[in-house]
Amino acid sequence: MSDVRLSSPQGRWILFTTVLGSGMALLDSTVVNVALPRIGEDLGADLGALQWTVNAYLVTLAGLILLGGALGDRFGRRRVFVVGVLWFAAASLLCGIAPNAAMLNAARALQGAGGALLTPGSLALIQASFHPDDRGRAVGLWSGFGGIGAAVGPFLGGWLVDGPGWRWVFLINVPLALLCAPVAVRHVPESSGGRAEGHFDVLGAALGAIALALVTYALIGAGDGSPLVAVSAVAGLTAAVGFVLVEKRRPGPMMPLEIFSSRQFSVVNGVTLCVYAAFGGFFFLAALQLQVVVGWSALAAGTALLPTTALMLLLSARSGELADRIGPRLPLTVGPLLCAAGVLLMLRVGPDASYAADVLPALLVLGLGMVTLVAPLTASVLASVDVARAGLASGVNNAAARAAGLLAVAALPLLAGMGPEAYRQPAAFDAAFDRAMLLCAGVLAIGAVLAAATVRRPAPGCRRPECRSHGSVAVPPLEADPRRGSGAL
After folding, report:
1. Percent helix, strand, coil in the chain (nearest 5)?
2. How far apart are CA 103 and CA 450, in angstroms?
3. What are the tens digits of pLDDT across the range 419-469?
4. Residue-range domain boundaries for the chain
5. If you classify domain 9-201+252-487 with CATH, what class do you get?
6. pTM for the whole thing?
7. Which of 89, 244, 245, 348 has the most CB atoms within 10 Å of its CB?
8. CB–CB of 440/343 below 8 Å?
């Protein structure tokens, strides 16, 4: 464990490289949605292929992120972080030169694997490197700069798509990685969790990723009526059962099932599944609606979505403080209901919609709902387990949020009746979008009811999260294990 001070030159370099590394992965989770219509047009891809452009990344990221943190503990957090950065850059290059949708989506899956190595490592390096007196401030800066990256993402994506082209949404990661990796090697001290023995839960990670991939494939292809879809669904559910059995019986599992013996932990993760499924489906379809139906450019559509992230950056810390005083149940009930109201206001967004009269009110209400619920949600997850398991709890919650988003992107077009060519037919897409927004609002309402009925105030003295500013609407922030300095384990 190092005692680097934040005010020192080395401290500033550590913060710079960890923010830059995690920012690459965060940018790719926010900019790609804006580029989807242009990707489909250029590569001749149908809606299912565009769904995979989002989900191929999320499948490997959600399935491997816990394993990525464990690899850092064993082999060195800096080493695994640098490998993740370079892996992510190589996969981004493959995305940028992909000649067709199949190659693009295969490269996106590789990107997600790289993200699983670098995302937990970025926060773990901060926790392991900085002096205890500076650690909380360093984590806050890491989170705040990450939020700024999330805010810039849709705008940057739109600018790149309308300017040099959608391929630069991916290619921009290459020079960033070539800057990040050498700085990390030169200025970031190596650290590990001190565990040289034991086994990695590779089987559990593989089964989890396979289950997500097969179920996602079945949901995206369900409209085809192919026997392969049914086989994939059965195989995916079988892999999911296998994952549970392996985690139950294996010594040192990736996700110890006994953590769910905490009723509060299980309930809050249930709320997480509801709200992040709605968020994932909303942001996937909203970027398409603004371009396909309203007729805006990629830049205009990306810029239009900024208010939600801006509100998160400005107000989430105050929301967390309020939840500390009044308890999490009210924020976790009111927040999803506000989000549902914002989603329903998107029903007003159709051809020739006005930004000020139609789009902005919906996004402001949605953003206020996110502000209300996201910080208390993360705090409740961490407060529901022992301090020694805070990193594990955050990692499970983070993986649950990502899995919920990818399943929503896979299932929502199917449930809303979107055909393979829907995004090329504005009238058909508009009607299906309205049905999808009703479904998102319904899932958010279920989350609100679940929170109202089951969430309770944590016991006095529970640990509060260091990461109190939330800028990304895609996933909750990772929280590091205070004992080992490891994030999302």
Report:
1. 80, 0, 20
2. 41
3. 888 899 999 999 999 999 999 999 999 999 999 999 877 655 554 444 444
4. 9-201+252-487, 202-251
5. mainly alpha
6. 0.86
7. 89
8. yes
